[in-house]
Amino acid sequence: MIIDTLSNSDKYVSLHPRFAKAFEFIKSQNLAAIEPGKYQIDGPELHAGVTDRQGYSREEAKFECHNHWLDIQVCPTGKEQIGWSARERVSSPKGEYNAEKDVTFYDDKPDTYFTLQAGQFAIFYPEDVHAPQIGEGMIKKLVVKVKL
């Protein structure tokens, strides 16, 4: 997992061949005004989704990870809490792996929580189990999906 500010995103473009286009897309948006929906960035292996929904409590948040996709998550306005654990530390899958959606959910609880604020991003790799959109009120979320 990586947490940093969007102003430092150039430091990470060498970590994956699609990161340059992903961060270019993020930084070209008016994040305060971006509308919920799906956004094509560069073919089927790089796309984004924006949601604007009621925040979850820590108990309600979906604790998940992916096998074939990376997430670059941005909180366009305000702030949100995100729970995190290393995949090697979780042991209670909540059902089977969903290959179509590339997601496994867990009943475990995160080891740690952090706050993601406007102007920041988090990158979640397959070894990062994460529980996003924790907070009160409406939380706008931008997630860029990057194929491994």
UniProtKB/TrEMBL annotation:
Protein origin, superkingdom: Bacteria
Gene Ontology CC: cytosol
Pfam families for this protein: DUF386
InterPro entries hit by this protein: NanQ/TabA/YiaL, NanQ/TabA/YiaL_sf
PANTHER family: EVOLVED BETA-GALACTOSIDASE SUBUNIT BETA, PROTEIN YIAL
Protein name in UniProt: Beta-galactosidase subunit beta
Annotated organism of origin: Segetibacter aerophilus
Phylogenetic classification of the source organism: Bacteria, Pseudomonadati, Bacteroidota, Chitinophagia, Chitinophagales
